[in-house]
Amino acid sequence: FLRAVPSLLRGEPFRPEGSRGILDETLAQGFGVLADDADREIVIGAYCRPWLADVEFRPLAPEEFASFDEPGFVKIAVSLAAEPLGEDSSRFVTRTRAVATDAEARRKFRRYWSRMSAGIILIRWFFLPLLKRQVERQAST
Hints:
Oligomer: single chain
Strand content: 25-35%
Shape: globular
């Protein structure tokens, strides 16, 4: 929804597509799968200019991701993992890493992150309990 605010300010209608789940939602935004260890961990990634109002996430093939260095972008990799805690329990772990492709992109990203990080972190803390309830419901059926 927050990414839709610029469009709303231009008078464009908001069209929520419903809840597709965290992975499907992120892939629909333009991320691509970089690695997949079935039922344990998936790593997704994209390159973008997150400081722009209308961010366009673009996927890269796994073999191209590490070496991609076109100036003016940030590469973002996100891991979603289930770490076993015992026979009947696990812990959900997500890690996000970002790296700029040049000094100017790094400067812009740092400025963006200094303004937006608190909100992004709060959104994650808000949605993690929702995700937990969804997973626990699915596991019980």
